[in-house]
């Protein structure tokens, strides 16, 4: 019997999860606050998410898994607690924006898995910016690998090549194989030395590389001089007001000297500075002076007070305010081969962190100086330009003409399109990656505007939630045609259906693709993996069609029984 799955919260992400699970043949029921056009009453329960009556109407007592997919962490927490009261044994997949809270709940509660839409989608945005046509991600060897599809056409370098020749490369994992004619699983194709034909499709994972490029001393010196130039440019207003103040002081000084008041230049300068700055001076200098000198002194007092007050305010803002940080950020903008991230949204800061960790230079453009991620970015040494990225001057300040890519990832779809169009109008050849929240229109936007990638976090994250709902320790997922496949790690126990069997044999009849196995403190891959006999304690990493997980789950339960 297939497990019953409840999806609570049919927003953009939740409804995508709901449809994916139903597409795979799962027994799934949705919960939403209002009716959804085209959905039958029995398939979608209408009511408050955390109400006991709503959960009971959805069959919480008999449900195997609950997927909580609303965008509100507080609501998700309430639903989780209510569900556990009604069914203490239910398995919960919980969407959390607060990843720290999610991790704490995972360690505290049994059968609770927290997942983040931002965390799942951000790597694909990063891979797209780096030039990979990623369709998903998979975690292997403590790294997140991009997953992409290789379509074998007339000009593809792999055309006519044996699939077995691609099997041994540890930096490239073969995940799935779809022949143009007939049906053959990947392991069978490898063992049969099948040749790739035009129309065949391979899903592969590629090991990411860390950029270890070191800057030359010449580039460092150029950047220092460029930084000085930028600093001088942005400090012009403060410098100009300081020059005006000095000019006023000198005018007053020379006036008193040449007015024959019997004072030295130093005394005149001392009096002028004290008079204009308000610090005080020798007032006897003008007590016996002619009336015209007194009138001149009054004028200089007023003018000096205005100029000094403005200059002092500007200097204070420059040194103690945010202006110095802005100027310093502007001075540190890379000259070439950097990535411009427009918008420090939740997904924006994740992209920044991943690019920075990979060794790439990044520039951030953000309109809100109070954004909570601004200090996080600056703490990593990343320059932040506090300006509107849709303005031509802002993009030019970020050195867009020599940048590697632009990522428009604010929380507003219209603004993201505006930024992307402005970037393309400035530099037509630059790759632009656009965040578009609505998954139904993301593909349309890419087609209409011909951007390199228009990605929807809901579209990218939903398969992972659906895969997790089907069971197992999910490490990756993807969509091939209309079929969902998942990658997961399974511990081989004495009662496991794979225990005591050869990997090459069990892979063919169970229709999965082995990735690698951890056994006796070593990792086996390639041909060694296929010739491995699985024993208790081994951990097998594999990819399998989602609809086959039910069979595996049923076999495990029957053997355990």
Structural class: alpha/beta
Strand content: 15-25%
Number of helices: 22
Biggest sheet overview: 9 strands, antiparallel
Task: Specify the helix fraction band.
Answer: 40-55%
User: Overall 3D geometry?
Assistant: elongated
Strand order in space, largest sheet: 9-10-8-7-17-18-21-19-20
Q: Oligomer, anyone?
A: single chain
Give me the count of strands. 21
Q: What gap, in angstroms, lies between the N and C termini?
A: 14 Å
List the uncertain runs. 553-561
Radius of gyration: 33 Å
Kindly report the average pLDDT value. 83
Features:
561 residues; alpha/beta; nine-stranded antiparallel beta sheet; 22 helices; elongated
Question: What do these coordinates show?
Answer:
Helix content is 45%, strand content 20%. Helix 9 (236-258) packs across helix 10 (265-277) and helix 9 (236-258) runs antiparallel to helix 12 (291-320). The longest helix has 30 residues, at 291-320. The strands form three sheets. Strands 9-10-8-7-17-18-21-19-20 form a nine-stranded antiparallel β-sheet. It has a six-stranded parallel β-sheet with strand order 3-2-1-4-5-6, sandwiched between helices. Strand 1, helix 1 (12-23) and strand 2 (27-32) form a beta-alpha-beta unit. The model is unreliable at 553-561 (pLDDT under 50). By secondary structure, the protein is α/β, with parallel strands linked by helices. The chain has 22 helices and 21 strands.
Brief summary of the model shown:
With 561 residues, the chain is α/β, with parallel strands linked by helices. Helix content is 45%, strand content 20%. It is built from 22 helices and 21 strands.
């Amino acid at each position: 019997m297939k497990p019953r799955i409840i999806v609570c919260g049919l927003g953009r992400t939740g409804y995508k999860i709901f449809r994916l699970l139903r597409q795979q043949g799962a027994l799934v029921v949705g919960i939403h606050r209002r009716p959804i056009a085209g959905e039958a009453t029995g398939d979608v329960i209408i009511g408050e998410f955390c109400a006991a009556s709503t959960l009971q109407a959805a069959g919480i007592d008999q449900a195997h898994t609950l997927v909580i997919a609303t965008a509100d962490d507080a609501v998700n927490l309430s639903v989780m607690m209510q569900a556990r009261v009604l069914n203490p044994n239910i398995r919960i997949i919980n969407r959390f924006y607060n990843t720290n809270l999610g991790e704490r709940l995972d360690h505290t509660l049994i059968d609770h898995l927290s997942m983040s839409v931002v965390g799942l989608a951000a790597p694909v945005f990063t891979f797209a910016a780096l030039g990979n046509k990623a369709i998903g991600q998979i975690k292997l060897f403590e790294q997140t690998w991009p997953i992409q599809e290789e379509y074998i056409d007339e000009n593809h370098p792999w055309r006519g090549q044996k699939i077995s020749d691609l099997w041994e490369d540890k930096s490239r994992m073969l995940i799935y194989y779809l022949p143009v004619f007939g049906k053959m699983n990947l392991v069978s194709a490898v063992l049969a030395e099948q040749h790739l034909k035009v129309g065949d499709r391979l899903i592969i994972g590629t090991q990411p590389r860390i950029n270890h490029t070191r800057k030359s001393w010449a580039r460092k010196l150029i950047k220092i001089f460029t930084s000085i130039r930028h600093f001088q440019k942005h400090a012009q207003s403060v410098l100009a007001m300081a020059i005006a103040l000095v000019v006023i002081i000198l005018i007053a000084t020379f006036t008193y000297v040449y007015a024959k008041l019997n004072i030295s230049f130093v005394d005149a300068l001392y009096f002028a500075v004290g008079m204009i700055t308000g610090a005080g001076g020798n007032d006897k200098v003008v007590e016996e002076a002619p009336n015209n000198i007194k009138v001149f002194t009054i004028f200089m007092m007023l003018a000096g007070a205005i100029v000094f007050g403005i200059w002092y305010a500007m200097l204070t803002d420059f040194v103690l305010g945010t202006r110095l940080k802005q100027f310093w950020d502007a001075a540190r903008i890379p000259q070439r081969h950097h990535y411009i991230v427009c918008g420090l949204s939740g997904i924006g800061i994740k992209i920044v962190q991943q690019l920075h960790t990979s060794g790439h230079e990044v520039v951030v453009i953000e309109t809100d100086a109070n954004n909570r991620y601004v200090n996080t970015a600056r703490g990593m040494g990343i320059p932040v330009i506090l300006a509107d990225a849709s303005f031509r001057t802002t993009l030019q300040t970020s050195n867009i003409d020599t940048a590697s890519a632009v990522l428009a990832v604010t929380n507003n779809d219209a603004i993201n399109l505006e930024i992307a169009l402005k970037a393309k109008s400035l530099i037509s050849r630059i790759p632009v990656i656009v965040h578009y929240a609505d998954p139904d229109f993301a593909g349309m936007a890419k087609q209409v505007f011909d951007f390199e990638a228009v990605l929807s976090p809901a579209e990218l994250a939903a398969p992972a939630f659906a895969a997790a709902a089907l069971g197992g320790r999910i490490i990756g997922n993807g969509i091939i045609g209309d079929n969902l496949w998942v990658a997961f790690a399974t511990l081989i126990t004495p009662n496991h259906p794979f225990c005591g069997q050869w990997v090459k044999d069990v892979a063919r009849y169970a229709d999965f693709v082995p990735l690698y196995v951890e056994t006796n403190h070593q990792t086996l891959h390639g041909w060694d993996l296929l010739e491995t006999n699985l024993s208790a304690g081994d951990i097998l990493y594999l990819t399998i069609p989602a609809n086959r997980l039910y069979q595996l789950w049923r076999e495990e339960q029957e053997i355990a029984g």
